[in-house]
Amino acid sequence: MHEEAIRKADVLIEALGYIRKFHGRFTVIKLGGSVMENPESLRALLVDIVFMQTVGMRPVVVHGGGKAITHAMEQAGLEARFVQGRRYTDEATLDIVARVLAEEINVDIVRHITKYGGRAAGLHHKTTQCLFGRRLTLPDGKGGDIDLGRVGEVTEVDAAPIENLCLAGVVPVLPSLAEGEDEKLLNVNADTAAAAVAVALKAEKLVFLTDTPGILRDRNEPKSLFRSLNPDDCRSLIAEGIIDKGMIPKVEACLDSLVQGVEKTHIIDGRLRHSLLLEMYTDTGIGTEIALKNAPKQPEVRHAISVRH
What we know:
By secondary structure, the chain is an alpha/beta fold. The protein has helices at residues 2-22, 39-54, 66-75, 91-115, 159-167, 190-201, 231-240, 247-259, 275-281, and strands spanning 26-31, 58-63, 82-83, 86-87, 120-122, 131-139, 145-158, 171-175, 177-179, 185-188, 205-210, 228-229, 264-269, 288-290, 306-308.
């Protein structure tokens, strides 16, 4: 019995140094994937976020909701269409995207954080809009552009409402929706939205919760996990095809945010119970950390994020 108590005390002592180091610092957490579909994984994650807020960190949640949006479209008799991995978003689709993200998922996350003893508030077009952007097109390979409808990218972040909530001990929760130049909504990629928020806040950490242990050399072998990478490592792994498909946007978002002032980025398995605390407050961590350390060259910034104050 004493041994178990001592082991718990050792864990607390190990965490103490990290709690002191990160006190008052912003951490942006991108929530998505199957962790949002699994009630137990989501509960453990939100408890982690409440813990972080309680010990003086300033967590900020940015979320998507791809599966829930597709399900809602099916119920409405609409077929989801993807172009180069992006959801084509016409006006009817945008109405569903906005409703599911802001009025269902966002409200549910806020409610659960409150249920687990924390305080949270949604920031979006129904409350306070903080993300602003422009329409996004993709090259068609023939010198032209592919229209994606109401799909956009974040170009500007109003940081003040986010900072003010954090200073008040409230966790801001933002869906991946931006206001366009025509003052209408845009459906934006949640990974790049999280990176934009992290840059605007000059966050200590940007954390992506995924459905894998991190970046693996062999995706069928968890022991092949890369625990630490720099930007040159990442570019080499992309060129080799080891980082591919849906992992590429996450890694590119990490690289963009690092060169614009975010201290460290992490890609971790959101399905693992308390993965967030294990990555933040233990010496070994559990996922892949990407940082500028030992990087001979800085990554190229695709576009800088402007900040409102």
